User: Fold this.
Amino acid sequence: MIPAPVQLDHLAPQLPQMEAGEFEAIADYAKTTFGLHLPLAKKEMVFARLIKRLRRRGLQDFSTYLAFIKHKDNAEERSEFLSALTTNVTQFFRESHHFDFFRDHLLAGIISKARAGHRLRFWSAGCSAGQEPYSLAMLILDSCPDAALLDIKILASDIDPRILDIARRGQYPADQRAAIPEALHRFLHPAASDQMFTIDAEPRKLISFAELNLIEDWPMRQGFDAIFCRNVAIYFDAPTQSRLWHRFAQQTKEGGHLFIGHSERLSGPAVAQMRSVGITVYVKTPTP
Ligand SMILES: C[S@@+](CC[C@H](N)C(=O)[O-])C[C@H]1O[C@@H](n2cnc3c(N)ncnc32)[C@H](O)[C@@H]1O
Assistant:
């Protein structure tokens, strides 16, 4: 006689549930700490991504996990939490029309101002692994080979310290070369592994990397000639976005430009301060 199959279901580890109150507490924390907007419709996504973090840490439930990331000593898991709920996806010359606009409409003016001794400042806000600021630096150097000797600087900031380490290293998988225009390949060098390339020292000299949470205070006091903040505000709720656009408008010099992501739109007080001059490109108009 064939023995009846043994029922092991009762021995299978139970997945912790995410109670409604736990989801609310997590969403509240994500909003106040990182500006992230997690509506109830995202509960399944939040569950699926955070359950992996719970397992990795060997924690029993989401309340314990939330207490864990709130603890001052657990900054590393706070970064993991943020990474699990956002994406660092980026690429060289992403939304290339922005770089075309910069090259065709702004670069000549920028170079002549810099040569006349002016201070030129650019900001890649939410720079991820660095492709955005390096694209900008290579573009500037292509037309102004002595840029590093002039007063031209790019601030590249992100909230995620681990992604900033990658950005500072400036080494990328070989398949990312294709997104960089051929004329700029002189700024790329083979890395130790032939699966990777590395960014030349000249573009690096133009960039300062810094950890910065966009929803907290900003230490910068001076204005920027152009700010790139693309595909970051999509994670924020509408009031947080409006506040961010307003702060960017205040941080942009008169006549300076703001570049935002393809699915983002200016809202709030910034609308009266910034005039659209291209696809998701805005110029700061003089204050009346
Ligand atoms: C999708 S990437 C965009 C990268 C690049 N700007 C682009 O368009 O390719 C979004 C980046 O925003 C960063 N980020 C998310 N919330 C942030 C916050 N509150 N402050 C600063 N950066 C944040 C993430 O760490 C991530 O690197």
